[in-house]
Amino acid sequence: MLLFLGEGGERATVRRIEAIATAKSVAPELLADRLRVCFRVPRLAAPGAGSELVAIQAELAAHPPALVVLDPLYLAAAGASGANLYDMGAVLQAIQGVCQAAGCALLVVTHWNKTGDGRGADRISGAGPAAWARVICSVAVHYRGSDPDGASSVVLGVELIGGEIADTRFRIRRRVRANDPADLGTPLSYAVEVLAADDDEDLDPAAAALSKSRQWVLTALRAGGDMQTVKQLGDRLAQAGHPLKPRTIQTALGEPEAAGLAAGSEEGSGRARYWSPAPPADGSGRDQAGDGGGVGTP
Known about the structure:
There is one protein chain. Helices cover 32% and strands 21% of the residues. It has 298 residues and is an alpha/beta fold. The chain folds into three domains: 1-133, 3-Layer(aba) Sandwich (Rossmann fold); 135-197, no CATH class; 205-288, Arc Repressor Mutant, subunit A, CATH 1.10.10. It has a four-stranded parallel β-sheet with strand order 2-1-3-4. α7 packs across α9. The longest helix has 18 residues, at 85-102. It starts with a strand and ends in a 21-residue tail after the last strand.
């Protein structure tokens, strides 16, 4: 694999690669001939870009990879108009041709727009990538926080689409923890868990109208049945990849309660409330269905 990385920095990247290798029981030194990293991206739209492509061709010939990663596109395409399909097509076609001649795949990393409009591939910034790509993989951050042991915990929603593959969605929970948080040079512990995809297609109309965090809480409530505490809901949500704070869950329950989708026990001084799901208005009986997974992709 050949990586062109324009963001993140050498030290942080090497530290993360070592952590991933350790998690996969691979000795980092064995990666030397299989993973080659350049800590800048080729400027494919700049004057003299031809020399950059010649250098890449030489590298691919000397060390044939299965995959070339270009990250990020906005740096590699600096000088081209990101809104011009013809400009971006010329940039992408050039590097694609070099990789194709070498018999390796090309993965281009680009960013979403900042407006929040659209979903998945519809949120890709600029022209070119969505029209050019053979397969589009969109990754959204569903949750970011810290676990009690100090680990950074992130839940990512992944969506793949393409004319030659079935549309696929799943989620990943990634945990990264420094062995000594006070030492920036200490090794990292790295773990990844694949989670089931969120699925909002089976929600009744009243539940589908709720915000995403409210949908997650309602789904956990329906999966667990009657008389659940906020702590029980929190445990179920964390297991499903949507860890929420107790106060957030308590607040979130108010919306489905107001919509007649949930019912809480009577409030009392110092007494915890117990929560139960109400049957959906369409009578589908989904209040007892599901496996506790969260609902909805941003």
